[in-house]
Amino acid sequence: MPTYDYVCDACDHKFELFQTITAEPEKKCPECGKRKLRRLIGAGAGFVFKGSGFYQTDYRSESYKKKAEAENKSSSEASKSSSETKSESKAPESKPAGDAKPAKKPKKKE
């Protein structure tokens, strides 16, 4: 059963009401008692997909999954070895003594 939003044009009271789809819209405001109630058009509830089973790759064949896994494994190993090579070739950087910032003095507590 859906939840409908209502607003009273007389007192601006807004509320939600849990009704069946076939139920007639309410007319009388529960706050002021006047018959100026109208049902608002809302976006409604969206679909919420939780868990696995909603992705295209979940329905692939076993042979496709094995190929993809092997491909991912080989590409991750290749990137790992290239990053190790880069880190070995870099020399540690040292700053010249003239660019050093002076040490900050601690503030006195008053």
Number of strands: 3
For the termini, the CA-CA separation is 66 Å
Look at the structure and give the mean pLDDT.
76
Please estimate the helix content. 25-40%
The major beta sheet can be summarized as: 3 strands, antiparallel
Number of helices, counting only DSSP H or I runs of 4 residues or more: 1
What does the overall shape look like?
Answer: flat
Order of helices and strands: EEEH
Runs in which pLDDT lies below 50 for 5 or more consecutive residues are none
Give an overview of the whole structure.
The chain has one helix and three strands; from the N terminus they run E-E-E-H. By secondary structure, the protein is α+β, with helices and mostly antiparallel strands. The chain has a domain at 3-39. Strands 2-1-3 form a three-stranded antiparallel β-sheet, with no helix packed on it. A hairpin with a 5-residue loop joins strand 1 and strand 2.
